[in-house]
Specification:
Elements lengths: L6 E5 L2 E4 L6 H9 L4 H7 L5 H13 L1 H24 L3 H30 L1
Antiparallel strand pairs: 1-2
Helix pairs in contact: 1-3, 3-4
Length: 120
């Protein structure tokens, strides 16, 4: 099988390992951070060693092309994160408000405990 046969080329920004919902950048980021294929398999048990090795080999065989792909993916991820920070969903806004309220309640409770300990 040719290396490309291990992947689904969904669109310009997505290369997925065939038979999975795992994009190649997931495996390659772990690999580039020093994880062995066996360690990657432990992290993503829906893969198998053959697919992990094929992903790494594809990277090594087409390094320049795949590096450019990885950089595009990183850029898109960064843009999406910035957009989320600028325009959070109502759910995120609610979570932030609940977190702020809980944090304030904890600080107030801690302040009361500190004042009562000072009295003793």
């Amino acid at each position: 099988m040719e290396l490309e046969g291990y992947f689904d080329f969904i669109q310009e920004g997505v290369i997925r390992i065939k038979g999975n919902r795992i994009d190649i950048e997931i495996v390659l980021e772990d690999y580039l951070e020093g994880a062995s294929p066996e360690e990657i398999l432990l992290r993503y048990p829906t893969l198998n060693l053959e697919k992990i090795h094929a992903t790494i080999l594809y990277y090594l065989a087409k390094k320049e092309e795949v590096e450019a792909y990885l950089e595009r993916v990183r850029q898109l991820d960064e843009e999406a994160e910035q957009e989320q920070l600028r325009n959070p969903s109502p759910f995120v806004v609610e979570l932030r408000e609940r977190f702020a309220k809980a944090s304030q309640e904890l600080l107030e409770a801690e302040g009361k405990r500190t004042r009562s300990a000072d009295v003793l």
